[in-house]
Amino acid sequence: MSRVHAVIMAGGRGTRFWPASRESLPKQFLTAVGAHSLVRQTALRLLPLAGAERTWVVTNAAHVDLAARELPELSRAHIVGEPVGRNTAPCIALAALLALREDDDAVLLVAPADHWIGDEDAFRATARTAIEFALKNDALVTFGIVPASPETGYGYIESGEEVASGVHRVARFTEKPDRKTAEQLVASGRHFWNSGIFVWKASVLRDEMSRHAPEIVKACERIVSAGDLAAAMQANYSSLPSISIDYALLEKSNHVYVVPARFPWSDIGSWDALASLLPQDAQGNATQGDALLLEAKNSFVRAPGRLVAILGVDDLIVVDTPDALLVCPKDRAQEVKKLVEELEKRGRRELL
């Protein structure tokens, strides 16, 4: 494990978690479930594999100080601020080149900052399988979550032949399917949810991206070779395309593999996803904070600051904050980001 470098991607806005998630304190820095913020939980999960001295965080430039407070074990030089978000491909390419600057043999374990994992020992066992394969092969390895249901909000990975114990070649990726297609994919037994967790040698990532997304690698090389990283980021990063690692590389490369992962997992992508991870009463309700529910079913209330009471309602999400209150049907939780977009249009920046 001495060659493993952990990369935590912590640059998202978390708009589906409005009104708790704001530009000044996005979802990954909230204590959504458990005793720590999501980003700290992620770091604690990865530190036994990589160590603090080989752990990196890529976040928004405005949140570098916040990340440093959440993760005091890390070197400040390993907390990298993006002046503007550019999705996962530029973020990962930059982290790979920074790791290579310190370690020619670096193997990256890349993970989003805002995932929940219910069995951390099983996660690390899966990670070791992926790391051992990546060490021996020029491989891009992704974690495929064994699906618990035909979810339409996730991308899917179809596995092909098994090339090593617990490692399969990727046959194809499928973007977020409709319900009928998702049911067919799950029934096949060959498809996994695309977790967005990856393992690869930093040098292999660089070389594969040089083939398939050369403009990203060239720009990141200019940034990393500059004397002042922050100034170089400010001058160059916004010119990078905003594109995911899936589109930029994984769907194009012939060196992509999947390790089936059987640990409980959620990307906590919305309030209803969070509610499903919390204890529920006999009526299927979940609460956080000071909540009173009477004759309510299958609802979620987050009330950290004052009492919130609901009566005679079903399938609701209620999230209270000092300056904004969210109420929406549970089955429309994915659409909360529309409210953020509308607030932006109306110039209500004080609520963003």
Can you give the helix content as a percent range? 25-40%
DSSP strand (E) fraction? 25-35%
Ranges where pLDDT stays below 50 over 5 or more residues in a row are none
- Tell how many strands the DSSP assignment holds: 15
Number of domains: 2
* Cα-atom radius of gyration: 21 Å
If you consult CATH, what is the topology of the largest domain? Answer: Spore Coat Polysaccharide Biosynthesis Protein SpsA, Chain A
Q: For the largest beta sheet, what order do the strands appear in spatially?
A: 6-9-7-8-10
Number of alpha- plus pi-helical segments: 11
H/E topology pattern: EHEHEHEEHEEEHEHHHHEEHEEEEH
Mean pLDDT across the residues is 96
Oligomer: single chain
Distance between the termini: 41 Å
CATH superfamily of the largest domain: Spore Coat Polysaccharide Biosynthesis Protein SpsA, Chain A
Structural class designation: alpha/beta
- Shape from CA axes? globular
CATH top level class name of the largest domain = Alpha Beta
- Under the CATH scheme, the architecture of the largest domain is Alpha-Beta Complex
- Largest sheet, described in full? 5 strands, mixed, barrel
Entry summary:
The chain has 352 residues and is of the alpha/beta class. The protein contains eleven helices and 15 strands. The chain has helices at residues 38-50, 64-70, 88-102, 120-136, 179-188, 202-212, 214-225, 229-236, 245-250, 271-275, 336-345, and strands at 4-10, 55-60, 79-82, 107-112, 116-117, 140-145, 156-164, 167-174, 191-201, 256-261, 265-266, 286-294, 300-311, 316-320, 325-329.
